[in-house]
Amino acid sequence: MVTHRFDNFAESCCQALACLSIVHSVEDLCRSWSSVSLQQNFADYLLTIMIWIICIFLPYSFHCKDINLYFMTLDLNLWITVACAQRVLISNKLGEKLVGLLHEACSKELVILCHGFRATKDDSILVDLAAALASAGVNAFRFDFAGNGESEGLFQYGNYRKEADDLRSVVSYFSEQKYDIIALVGHSKGGNAVLLYASMYHDVTVIVNISGRFALEEGIEGRLGKNFLQRIKKDGYIDVRNKKGKFEYRVTEESLRDRLSTDTLLSSRSISKGCRGSH
Ligand SMILES: *[C@@H]1O[C@H](CO)[C@@H](O)[C@H](O)[C@H]1NC(C)=O
Protein backbone atom coordinates (compact mmCIF):
# COMPACT_ATOMS: atom_id res chain seq x y z
CA MET A 1 0.00 0.00 0.00
CA VAL A 2 1.42 3.38 -0.97
CA THR A 3 1.25 5.99 1.72
CA HIS A 4 0.80 9.49 0.52
CA ARG A 5 -0.35 12.68 2.11
CA PHE A 6 -3.41 14.84 2.11
CA ASP A 7 -1.95 17.34 -0.37
CA ASN A 8 -2.10 14.72 -3.11
CA PHE A 9 -4.71 15.96 -5.55
CA ALA A 10 -6.19 12.57 -6.46
CA GLU A 11 -6.46 11.76 -2.80
CA SER A 12 -8.35 14.93 -2.01
CA CYS A 13 -10.73 14.25 -4.88
CA CYS A 14 -11.49 10.81 -3.63
CA GLN A 15 -12.02 12.18 -0.13
CA ALA A 16 -14.49 14.65 -1.49
CA LEU A 17 -16.32 11.95 -3.41
CA ALA A 18 -16.44 9.73 -0.38
CA CYS A 19 -17.87 12.54 1.72
CA LEU A 20 -20.47 13.33 -0.88
CA SER A 21 -21.67 9.77 -1.13
CA ILE A 22 -21.87 9.50 2.62
CA VAL A 23 -23.73 12.78 2.96
CA HIS A 24 -26.16 11.61 0.34
CA SER A 25 -26.95 8.36 2.06
CA VAL A 26 -27.11 9.92 5.50
CA GLU A 27 -29.58 12.45 4.14
CA ASP A 28 -31.72 9.59 2.86
CA LEU A 29 -31.38 7.96 6.20
CA CYS A 30 -32.53 11.07 8.04
CA ARG A 31 -35.54 11.35 5.79
CA SER A 32 -36.56 7.78 6.43
CA TRP A 33 -35.97 8.26 10.13
CA SER A 34 -38.14 11.31 10.31
CA SER A 35 -40.77 9.36 8.36
CA VAL A 36 -40.83 6.84 11.16
CA SER A 37 -41.15 9.86 13.45
CA LEU A 38 -37.76 9.73 15.08
CA GLN A 39 -36.40 13.08 16.24
CA GLN A 40 -35.03 15.03 13.30
CA ASN A 41 -32.59 16.75 15.68
CA PHE A 42 -31.08 13.48 16.66
CA ALA A 43 -30.60 12.55 13.02
CA ASP A 44 -28.93 15.91 12.34
CA TYR A 45 -26.67 15.42 15.31
CA LEU A 46 -25.67 11.98 14.11
CA LEU A 47 -25.12 13.29 10.61
CA THR A 48 -22.63 15.86 11.87
CA ILE A 49 -20.71 13.29 13.88
CA MET A 50 -20.62 10.84 10.99
CA ILE A 51 -19.36 13.42 8.53
CA TRP A 52 -16.75 14.50 11.02
CA ILE A 53 -15.53 10.93 11.58
CA ILE A 54 -15.55 9.97 7.94
CA CYS A 55 -14.19 13.11 6.37
CA ILE A 56 -11.75 14.31 9.01
CA PHE A 57 -10.94 11.80 11.67
CA LEU A 58 -10.47 8.67 9.52
CA PRO A 59 -8.31 10.27 6.82
CA TYR A 60 -6.05 11.84 9.45
CA SER A 61 -5.72 8.78 11.57
CA PHE A 62 -4.93 6.55 8.60
CA HIS A 63 -2.70 9.15 6.94
CA CYS A 64 -4.85 8.77 3.86
CA LYS A 65 -3.42 5.46 2.80
CA ASP A 66 -4.79 5.36 -0.74
CA ILE A 67 -7.85 4.78 -2.83
CA ASN A 68 -8.82 1.95 -0.47
CA LEU A 69 -10.05 4.58 1.90
CA TYR A 70 -12.58 5.63 -0.67
CA PHE A 71 -13.90 2.10 -0.92
CA MET A 72 -13.86 1.82 2.82
CA THR A 73 -16.16 4.80 3.10
CA LEU A 74 -18.40 3.27 0.45
CA ASP A 75 -18.59 0.14 2.58
CA LEU A 76 -19.45 2.34 5.51
CA ASN A 77 -22.12 3.89 3.39
CA LEU A 78 -23.61 0.46 2.80
CA TRP A 79 -23.14 -0.41 6.44
CA ILE A 80 -25.16 2.61 7.52
CA THR A 81 -28.14 1.66 5.33
CA VAL A 82 -27.87 -1.91 6.53
CA ALA A 83 -27.51 -1.00 10.20
CA CYS A 84 -30.60 1.15 10.06
CA ALA A 85 -32.93 -1.47 8.60
CA GLN A 86 -35.89 -2.12 10.83
CA ARG A 87 -36.42 -5.59 12.32
CA VAL A 88 -39.81 -7.09 11.53
CA LEU A 89 -41.22 -10.35 12.93
CA ILE A 90 -43.92 -12.14 10.96
CA SER A 91 -45.66 -15.41 11.89
CA ASN A 92 -45.93 -18.01 9.17
CA LYS A 93 -48.80 -20.46 8.70
CA LEU A 94 -47.42 -22.76 11.40
CA GLY A 95 -46.97 -19.91 13.86
CA GLU A 96 -43.17 -19.90 13.47
CA LYS A 97 -41.62 -16.44 13.72
CA LEU A 98 -39.90 -15.26 10.57
CA VAL A 99 -37.28 -12.58 11.11
CA GLY A 100 -36.69 -9.93 8.48
CA LEU A 101 -35.19 -6.50 7.94
CA LEU A 102 -37.04 -3.66 6.29
CA HIS A 103 -34.93 -1.07 4.51
CA GLU A 104 -37.12 1.97 4.49
CA ALA A 105 -37.43 4.49 1.72
CA CYS A 106 -39.84 7.36 1.32
CA SER A 107 -42.50 5.49 -0.59
CA LYS A 108 -45.05 2.75 -0.14
CA GLU A 109 -43.51 0.60 -2.88
CA LEU A 110 -41.92 -2.58 -1.61
CA VAL A 111 -39.73 -5.30 -3.08
CA ILE A 112 -39.42 -8.58 -1.14
CA LEU A 113 -36.09 -10.43 -1.39
CA CYS A 114 -35.72 -14.20 -0.84
CA HIS A 115 -32.48 -16.00 -0.04
CA GLY A 116 -31.27 -19.31 -1.44
CA PHE A 117 -30.26 -22.72 -0.12
CA ARG A 118 -28.46 -22.62 3.25
CA ALA A 119 -28.25 -18.87 2.97
CA THR A 120 -29.92 -16.13 5.00
CA LYS A 121 -31.25 -12.62 4.64
CA ASP A 122 -27.66 -11.45 5.20
CA ASP A 123 -26.44 -12.97 1.96
CA SER A 124 -24.41 -10.23 0.25
CA ILE A 125 -26.60 -10.33 -2.88
CA LEU A 126 -29.69 -9.52 -0.83
CA VAL A 127 -27.93 -6.90 1.28
CA ASP A 128 -26.61 -5.09 -1.81
CA LEU A 129 -29.96 -5.30 -3.58
CA ALA A 130 -31.80 -3.97 -0.53
CA ALA A 131 -29.39 -1.06 -0.13
CA ALA A 132 -29.62 -0.23 -3.84
CA LEU A 133 -33.42 -0.36 -3.80
CA ALA A 134 -33.68 1.79 -0.69
CA SER A 135 -31.38 4.42 -2.14
CA ALA A 136 -33.52 4.38 -5.31
CA GLY A 137 -36.54 5.20 -3.15
CA VAL A 138 -38.09 1.73 -2.95
CA ASN A 139 -38.55 -0.13 0.35
CA ALA A 140 -36.87 -3.51 0.46
CA PHE A 141 -37.56 -6.40 2.80
CA ARG A 142 -35.18 -9.34 3.20
CA PHE A 143 -36.05 -12.17 5.56
CA ASP A 144 -35.04 -15.66 6.68
CA PHE A 145 -37.23 -18.55 5.61
CA ALA A 146 -38.31 -20.79 8.51
CA GLY A 147 -35.42 -22.97 9.69
CA ASN A 148 -32.82 -20.58 8.30
CA GLY A 149 -30.90 -17.69 9.85
CA GLU A 150 -32.72 -16.18 12.81
CA SER A 151 -36.17 -17.50 11.94
CA GLU A 152 -37.83 -20.22 13.99
CA GLY A 153 -38.46 -23.72 12.64
CA LEU A 154 -36.41 -26.66 11.50
CA PHE A 155 -34.03 -26.40 8.55
CA GLN A 156 -35.18 -28.58 5.67
CA TYR A 157 -33.65 -29.59 2.40
CA GLY A 158 -36.61 -29.41 0.03
CA ASN A 159 -39.48 -27.48 1.45
CA TYR A 160 -40.23 -25.47 -1.67
CA ARG A 161 -43.94 -25.28 -0.94
CA LYS A 162 -43.37 -24.28 2.65
CA GLU A 163 -41.08 -21.48 1.49
CA ALA A 164 -43.79 -20.28 -0.88
CA ASP A 165 -46.18 -20.36 2.12
CA ASP A 166 -43.69 -18.33 4.21
CA LEU A 167 -43.56 -15.84 1.38
CA ARG A 168 -47.36 -15.75 1.38
CA SER A 169 -47.33 -14.76 5.06
CA VAL A 170 -44.80 -12.02 4.34
CA VAL A 171 -46.78 -10.65 1.39
CA SER A 172 -50.01 -10.68 3.42
CA TYR A 173 -48.34 -8.90 6.30
CA PHE A 174 -47.10 -6.04 4.14
CA SER A 175 -50.33 -5.82 2.13
CA GLU A 176 -52.18 -5.31 5.40
CA GLN A 177 -49.71 -2.53 6.23
CA LYS A 178 -50.79 -0.92 2.94
CA TYR A 179 -47.52 -1.44 1.14
CA ASP A 180 -47.63 -1.73 -2.61
CA ILE A 181 -45.63 -4.90 -3.32
CA ILE A 182 -44.17 -4.25 -6.75
CA ALA A 183 -41.87 -7.27 -7.08
CA LEU A 184 -40.67 -10.52 -5.55
CA VAL A 185 -37.00 -11.32 -6.09
CA GLY A 186 -35.49 -14.71 -5.31
CA HIS A 187 -31.89 -15.84 -5.52
CA SER A 188 -31.08 -19.50 -6.25
CA LYS A 189 -33.58 -21.63 -4.27
CA GLY A 190 -35.39 -18.38 -3.48
CA GLY A 191 -35.91 -18.06 -7.25
CA ASN A 192 -37.94 -21.27 -7.11
CA ALA A 193 -39.90 -19.95 -4.15
CA VAL A 194 -40.93 -16.76 -5.95
CA LEU A 195 -41.90 -18.71 -9.10
CA LEU A 196 -43.92 -21.18 -7.07
CA TYR A 197 -45.56 -18.28 -5.26
CA ALA A 198 -46.54 -16.65 -8.55
CA SER A 199 -48.02 -19.93 -9.78
CA MET A 200 -50.31 -20.11 -6.73
CA TYR A 201 -51.17 -16.48 -6.02
CA HIS A 202 -51.60 -13.88 -8.64
CA ASP A 203 -51.19 -10.67 -6.70
CA VAL A 204 -47.63 -9.55 -7.47
CA THR A 205 -46.96 -8.61 -11.07
CA VAL A 206 -43.17 -8.71 -11.28
CA ILE A 207 -41.25 -11.86 -10.38
CA VAL A 208 -37.46 -11.99 -10.59
CA ASN A 209 -35.67 -15.34 -10.56
CA ILE A 210 -31.91 -14.97 -10.08
CA SER A 211 -30.14 -18.28 -10.87
CA GLY A 212 -32.98 -20.51 -9.74
CA ARG A 213 -32.57 -24.17 -10.66
CA PHE A 214 -34.96 -25.26 -13.37
CA ALA A 215 -34.62 -29.05 -13.17
CA LEU A 216 -34.96 -29.85 -9.48
CA GLU A 217 -34.35 -33.56 -10.02
CA GLU A 218 -30.79 -32.69 -10.99
CA GLY A 219 -27.84 -31.69 -8.85
CA ILE A 220 -28.81 -33.90 -5.92
CA GLU A 221 -26.11 -36.54 -6.22
CA GLY A 222 -23.41 -33.91 -5.79
CA ARG A 223 -24.67 -33.18 -2.28
CA LEU A 224 -26.17 -36.50 -1.16
CA GLY A 225 -23.81 -38.90 -2.91
CA LYS A 226 -24.47 -41.89 -5.14
CA ASN A 227 -27.59 -44.04 -4.76
CA PHE A 228 -29.19 -41.42 -2.57
CA LEU A 229 -32.69 -42.73 -3.31
CA GLN A 230 -31.95 -46.24 -2.06
CA ARG A 231 -30.03 -44.94 0.94
CA ILE A 232 -32.72 -42.52 2.02
CA LYS A 233 -35.42 -45.19 1.61
CA LYS A 234 -33.44 -47.49 3.89
CA ASP A 235 -32.65 -45.04 6.72
CA GLY A 236 -35.34 -42.40 6.23
CA TYR A 237 -32.68 -39.69 6.05
CA ILE A 238 -29.19 -38.82 4.84
CA ASP A 239 -26.84 -36.66 6.88
CA VAL A 240 -24.76 -34.36 4.75
CA ARG A 241 -21.25 -33.78 6.03
CA ASN A 242 -18.53 -31.45 4.83
CA LYS A 243 -15.12 -32.57 3.57
CA LYS A 244 -13.82 -32.78 7.12
CA GLY A 245 -16.69 -35.09 8.06
CA LYS A 246 -18.49 -32.47 10.14
CA PHE A 247 -22.30 -32.75 10.16
CA GLU A 248 -23.93 -29.99 8.12
CA TYR A 249 -27.61 -30.80 7.74
CA ARG A 250 -30.07 -33.70 7.60
CA VAL A 251 -32.10 -34.47 4.51
CA THR A 252 -35.27 -36.39 5.31
CA GLU A 253 -37.07 -38.60 2.84
CA GLU A 254 -40.06 -36.28 3.00
CA SER A 255 -38.09 -33.16 2.14
CA LEU A 256 -36.36 -34.96 -0.72
CA ARG A 257 -39.76 -36.04 -1.99
CA ASP A 258 -40.91 -32.42 -1.79
CA ARG A 259 -38.02 -31.39 -4.00
CA LEU A 260 -38.49 -34.21 -6.51
CA SER A 261 -42.19 -33.50 -6.83
CA THR A 262 -41.75 -29.77 -7.43
CA ASP A 263 -42.12 -29.28 -11.16
CA THR A 264 -40.77 -25.90 -12.24
CA LEU A 265 -42.18 -26.15 -15.76
CA LEU A 266 -45.64 -27.07 -14.55
CA SER A 267 -45.75 -24.30 -11.96
CA SER A 268 -44.32 -21.76 -14.42
CA ARG A 269 -47.25 -22.52 -16.70
CA SER A 270 -49.71 -21.58 -13.96
CA ILE A 271 -48.23 -18.10 -13.58
CA SER A 272 -50.84 -15.66 -14.82
CA LYS A 273 -50.28 -14.01 -18.20
CA GLY A 274 -50.21 -10.52 -16.71
CA CYS A 275 -47.19 -11.37 -14.59
CA ARG A 276 -43.80 -10.28 -15.86
CA GLY A 277 -40.98 -12.66 -15.09
CA SER A 278 -37.32 -11.99 -15.38
CA HIS A 279 -34.17 -14.05 -14.96
C1 LIG B 1 -34.57 -19.11 -13.41
O1 LIG B 1 -33.32 -18.55 -13.82
C2 LIG B 1 -32.33 -19.47 -14.25
C3 LIG B 1 -31.11 -18.71 -14.71
O2 LIG B 1 -30.85 -17.61 -13.96
C4 LIG B 1 -32.85 -20.31 -15.40
O3 LIG B 1 -31.90 -21.29 -15.74
C5 LIG B 1 -34.16 -20.98 -15.02
O4 LIG B 1 -34.68 -21.66 -16.14
C6 LIG B 1 -35.15 -19.90 -14.57
N1 LIG B 1 -36.40 -20.55 -14.21
C7 LIG B 1 -37.54 -20.28 -14.85
C8 LIG B 1 -38.73 -21.08 -14.43
O5 LIG B 1 -37.65 -19.44 -15.70
Automatic annotation (TrEMBL):
The chain crosses the membrane at residues 42-62. Signal peptide: none annotated. Keywords: Membrane, Transmembrane, Transmembrane helix. InterPro entries: AB_hydrolase_fold, Hydrolase_4. It comes from the Eukaryota. Residues 107-272 form the Serine aminopeptidase S33 domain. This is Serine aminopeptidase S33 domain-containing protein. It comes from Aegilops tauschii subsp. strangulata.
